[in-house]
Amino acid sequence: WEEYLQAAAPKRLFFLSTRGTRSLYACRFAPGDALVFGNESSGLPKPFYEKYAADLFRIPMPGPFARSINLANAASIAAYECYRQLAAYGG
Can you list the domains of the chain with their CATH numbers? Predict the structure, then answer.
C-alpha cells in the first residue's frame, strides 16, 4: 500500500465500503483522485477504517434489504461516476 501511494501519488483517496457513511454521489472528483476498494470477501483492511474514516463512501442502496453488489459492479459504478463528473467539467 505504501509503495502504491509513493508511486502513484494520488491527490486524494476515496475508499468505497459498505461501512461508508457518505454517499458516492456526494463525492466531487478531480483529476488525480484515486478510488480504493477492498477485496470482495472481507472488504478493506481493518486499519483503513480508522485511518481513513473521513474518506469512506458507500454506494447507496434502495432500502435495508437490497442485495449486495459484487466488487466488479461496485468498481464499475464508482469509476463511471468519477468519469461522468470529470467529463462534465472537461477533466
Answer: 2-88 (3.40.1280.10)
C-beta separation of 57 from 22 below 8 A: yes
pLDDT of residue 69: 86
Q: Give pLDDT tens digits for 39-78.
A: 988 999 999 999 999 999 999 988 777 677 899 999 999 9
Tell me, what DSSP letter sits at residue 68?
Answer: P
33: Cβ contacts below 8 Å, ≥ 6 apart: 10, 11, 12, 13, 14, 82
Q: Which residues pair with 43 in a beta bridge?
A: 39
Closest CA to 37 of 18, 23, 64: 18
